[in-house]
Amino acid sequence: QVHLVETGGGLVQAGGSLRLSCTTSRRTATMGWFRQVPGKEREWVAAIRLRDGTTNYTDSAKGRFKISRDMAKYALYLQMNTLKPEDTAVYYCAASDSPLVFGDETRYAYWGQGTQVTVSS
After folding, report:
1. Cα–Cα nearest to 48, from 20, 73, 28, 18
2. First-to-last C-alpha distance (Å) of the chain
3. Is residue 95 within 8 Å of 104, Cβ to Cβ?
4. Which parts of the chain have pLDDT scores under 70?
């Protein structure tokens, strides 16, 4: 079992930045960030393969968000810049023991409780 805890959400104005953090109770192969707006399906944002740091992003996140990890701290981060109101959502940290997954939500077995990000216009 893996226990994930997200922190760092909050309220920010459009154009601002936030950094989300996620701590994990043990090392896994891949970690990712997803987000969900009430009434909509959860969508993938970014993922990183912990072994080699390979990253992948959804189109809306490319150029604005950066996913990173600190292996020593068992931590995952999502630096979000140039935030837009449409980025408003609950953001979830997820982990998988497979190194071959990025955006496939079904391949992530472990999930955090989520942290709210609200971007005001």
Report:
1. 28
2. 40
3. no
4. none
